[in-house]
Amino acid sequence: MPDRARLAAYDVLTAVRVDDAYTNLVLPAVLQRHRLSGRDAAFATELAAGTLRRRGTYDAVLATCVDRPLTRVDPGVLDALRLGAHQLLAMRVPDHAAISTSVDLVRTRVGHRPAGFTNAVLRKVSRHDLDAWVRRVAPDPAADPHGFESVAHAHPRWVVDALGEALAATDAHGELDALLAADNVSPDVVLVARPGRATREELGGTPTRWSPYGAVLDGGDPGEVPAVAAGRAGVQDEGSQLVAIALGRAAVEGDDRTWLDLCAGPGGKAALLAGLADEAGARLLAAERAPHRAALVARSLAGSGGVLGVVAADGTHPAWPPATFDRVLVDAPCTGLGALRRRPEARWRRRPEDLDELVVLQRALLGSALDAARPGGAVLYATCSPVLAETVGVIDAVLAERDDAYADDAAALLPEVPDAGGPRPGTLQLWPHRHGTDAMFLALLRRR
C-alpha cells in the first residue's frame, strides 16, 4: 500500500478532476480522512497543490515520454504520473521513492496492468531535471517568449498573454516572468483580526505590512488559533483586507450610517467591513445571490456588531430602493487569475470565452452598485483578477453609459502601499510578485 500522504494527494487530484472540486476546500477533509497532520499533512498539501499548479509543464514532459497522446492515457494513471513528475522534478524526493510510490498508487487505485507502464514513463522523466526538460519541450524563447513562459511556468498561453497585457498597462515592463513564478509559490497563511472582536496581537505570527488587522501565520493549523476557532478572526489574504480597508477610508458627504456588500460570499470581506462599520457607527447589509453562500456569510458575521442583516439577493435585481447606501462594495465574480497561488486548479479550468459572460455580469453589478449608492456616497469596485477586460474595461464601459457617475482617486485610500498604480489613473493594482498579495484591482466611483 502507498503511504497515506501520497494517497491523500492522489485523492485530491481525483476529486478536482472528477467532481470539479476546489483544492483548498477538499484538501482539509481529505487530510482528516487519512488522519494526517504535521509533516505528513504538509507533504500531501505540497504534493497535491504543486502538481495541480504545474500540470501544464508536467504534461508537456510526459507527452514526450509516452507512446500515445495523453488523452488516451487512463485519467487515474495520468494523475499518478503527474504526482510522480512533481516529486521527481520539483521536490526533494529520491528518484526511486518517487517512482516506486507512484507505481504503488496505480496498483492500488487503478489496477496492476498499468503499473509497468507507469514505471517506464517515470524512469524516462527522471533522466533530466526540470530546467533541462523545459529547454527540451518549450518553444524557443527568442521566437516565442510567451509560449516559452507558458510551458516553463505552467500557465495556459491565453493567461500568459492576458497577464502580460495587464502588466504592460501599469508600465510594469519586464515583470511577467516574476509574476508567473510567484503564481507557483505556495502563499503564506494570513489571518485577520476582526475589529472590535479580536486584536492582531492575539493572532501571533508576523504583522502584515500594510493591513493593521493582519498577521502572517508562522506555521501550524490556523484553526488552532483561539480567535480563529471562536470566529473572532479568520483567514484572509492581505490584499483582500486592503479592499475592505480602502472602502472604510473613503470620504463620504453627509450621513454615513448604511453600508452594502453587494457580492458578499463567502464572507471574509463582509466580516471585516462589519467591524469597520461598527467602529464608525454604521451598519452593513451583506447580499449574496446563492443561498448556500449567503449562509456562509451569515456564519462569518455571527457575533459581529455593525450588521444590518444578510440577504440572499441577486445584486443585478436589487431588493432595496435606489440611493439607499452611503458605501457600497462590489467584489465582483471574476476569472480569479490574480489568485492562482491559492487556487491551483483555476488556471486549467478557465477559458478565454469565460470573460464574455463575466464581463456582462461585472458591468451589471457595478451599475447596480452605483444605483444603490446615494449621491455623495462611495462605491468601490474590486476584482481578484488584473485582466484588463475585467478591470478598466468594466469601469470605462459603465461610466460611458451614464452621466451621473465618475471615477475618484482610489490610490489616495492606500498611500502606504508602494508601486500599486493601476492601469487607469486613480486605480490600484496589487501584485503577488510585488506585494505578496493576490492581484487585487481597486477602483473608487461616486454618484454625482
UniProtKB/TrEMBL annotation:
Residues in coiled coil: none
Span of domain SAM-dependent MTase RsmB/NOP-type: 166-448
Keywords, alphabetical: Methyltransferase, RNA-binding, S-adenosyl-L-methionine, Transferase
GO molecular function: methyltransferase activity
EC class (word): transferase
GO biological process: methylation
Catalytic site positions: C384
The keyword S-adenosyl-L-methionine appears for this protein: yes
Binding of S-adenosyl-L-methionine, residues: C263, A264, G265, P266, G267, G268, K269, E288, D314, D331
E.C. no: 2.1.1.-
Cytoplasm listed as a keyword: no
Top-rank taxon, per record: Bacteria
PROSITE patterns: NOL1_NOP2_SUN (PS01153), SAM_MT_RSMB_NOP (PS51686)
Stated family: Belongs to the class I-like SAM-binding methyltransferase superfamily. RsmB/NOP family.
Name of the molecule in the record: RsmB/NOP family class I SAM-dependent RNA methyltransferase
Organism of provenance: Nocardioides taihuensis
